[in-house]
Write a structure and sequence with these properties.
Elements lengths: L18 H22 L1
Length: 41
Amino acid sequence: MLKIAHIINPVKVKESVGLSWAQPVTFETMKNRKKYQRELR
């Protein structure tokens, strides 16, 4: 089985910074993938 690690560096940023919307998308994507992977087992 292939294992992939996703290394992230969560930070607090002002809403005007692009990372303010990209970071939550990253977290949600990781949660969705984890849920999907569990359903495959």
